[in-house]
Amino acid sequence: MKSSTTRRRAFLGAAAAGVAGAAASVATATPAAAVEDSIPASQKGAANGVAPLDAKKKVPVEHIPTADGKAPASVESLVIRARDRSIGSSWEGDQSKQIQAAVNEAAAAGARLVFQNGVYNCTNIHIPANSWIGSIGAPHSLADDPRSPVQINNADRADTPTFWWGGEGVAAHGIRIEGLTFWGGMAAVTGPLLHQRSGFEVQLDNIQLLKNWHGPGFIIDAASNCRYVDLQVQLCGTAEWPAVMMNHGDHPWRTGGFSMSNTNDFDRLRVERAPNVGMSIGMGSWNQVSAEFTRLTSPHFETDAQAGVKDALIQVGNVYNLDIVSPTLVAGPGGAVAHLEAPRTGASRLDTGGITVIGGSVAGRYRAPAKNTTAENRTNPFMIDLQSGNGFAMHGTRVTGYNNDGVAVRIGEKYGPDVQLQPLFRQWGAYAKDGSAGRLTLASDARTGVAPTPKVESPSGTGAKATVEGTDRRGRIEFVPGEKATTGTQFTFQFNRTFRKRPVVTLTQENVGVLYPSVDPMLKNVYSTSFQVAFATAPIPGRTYAFHYTVEELQE
Predict the structure, then answer these.
(1) 297-309: b or e for each residue (b if 16 or more CB lie within 10 Å)?
(2) Measured between alpha carbons, how far is residue 474 from residues 445, 450, 451, 498, 504 in Å?
């Protein structure tokens, strides 16, 4: 067999002979046919950001940038530059009219509106559905840099947001905003910098909200399937309003009624130096707000120790399944996370998950007095405050920086039964009582259970009374019938918690020789959080009927 080298030489030799023959007859040969155009006609003039060649192998004139720096026609169909719409960088004036027109034009054309580095002034800009707004040039930074990023100031610094979208009857889907800095400035911007009244598949990426000292940085009233990536919120919020508010109940900028959010992600959210609360989620009554399936991944929250912070960095209210994954939380006197769920009644009392903290670090600013004499740095009695709600879990989290006589997790009297604490590390120090070294106390648990609430029914007669002492597990009931009491249901007890499994109520008579009541022996499911007590014969008005109750959950 011939080697590959031999074959290549033979091929090249034949090709060379063919070239020589063609050269010998060039003077008399018929002109060759035109070379076939290798560029499909469908690609000529295509608005794809690449300038295809024409049939003469030249760049078509419509793809060549103009002398004044404007984009070629093919690119203009995809990108609209703010400066091409007479929107230039300036610290003065109000550019709201021009910017709103450019936003509307880009959204209608399905194009991206881009701002070049500089300062722009506007207010109350409505972002329509399918908008894409961004920047070109140097990225923003907290460091002072002469190469200014795209900074958008609130022009009138009044009670209106800089950008807003959504609301009742207003489409707000497919919105993307990236690479911008929104600045409140020294004057009193009492409204939020950004306000999402509603939104579906909204994405914010690489956004900085800066120095809104008289109002929130970002308000989200309703959201579904949204992503917020690399948001930095610095020096925003007030003592009353958090820097970031998600599904917050009554606030002066609300435009609708009940708001609920589901399936939303915050990736690398950074909130620093807020005057009080960094972020609130679902704060308000259940008939106002709730949030479900929310994830904070790698959040960084840090309080200013000198700001007189009194509340938790993250306040959580009415939530289903909030995951805080790999956080860095540096808390002040109010702690890092507080669960403050509003009371629930009826079917809405079903537990479907509360708060889960996975990995990361939760730290207070506590330092031993000998090392730090700043009063604010010596007032961290706890890091996690579970006041009301149910379903808190912490797995593999480092918890440090709380007082020697404090605890990492404080569980309030009204908190539910489901709490799991498995920290990776808890603080080492000297116990307050005897001064011996060791791990500091992980948690204090004040739960004793809350007694059910009695309600007398019409068969109990006029002036009937029912009282209860005890917990949601056991206690004592006294019932005094009123005038004209008859047979039937005398009173109902409403539990102030949700049961994981079907509960069974048992009554034991205390005063012998009086009429013994009957009770619905089993609450049908976790929705049925009340039981009724009935008498088969009419009770005697004015007589005290006393008995003890116990509640057990079936192991199914």
Answers:
(1) bbbbbbbbbeeeb
(2) 19, 10, 8, 15, 12
- Computed over every residue of the chain, the mean pLDDT equals 78
pLDDT digits (tens, 9 = 90+) for 387-429: 988 889 999 999 888 776 678 899 988 788 788 888 877 776 6
Residue 12 confidence (pLDDT) above 70: no
Q: Tokens at residue 329, please?
A: 């939380």
* Least confident interval from 79-83, 86-90, 154-158, 166-170: 154-158
Q: What is the reported pLDDT for 528?
A: 55
Q: Is the pLDDT of residue 179 over 70?
A: yes
Give the rounded percent of residues in the chain with a pLDDT score beyond 70: 69
Which residues, other chains included, contact 546 with Cβ-Cβ below 8 Å and sequence gap of 6+? 476, 477, 478, 479, 510, 511
Nearest to 297 by CA among 243, 247, 360, 354: 360
Spatial distance between the Cα atoms of 220 and 265, rounded to a whole number of angstroms: 13
Q: Bridge-partner residues for 178, per DSSP?
A: 205
Q: Please give the structure tokens belonging to residue 407.
A: 């605890």
Residue in 338, 364, 358 with CA at minimum distance from that of residue 422: 358
Specify the 3-state DSSP secondary structure of 7.
helix
Angle made by CA atoms 277, 283, 289, in degrees to the nearest 5: 145
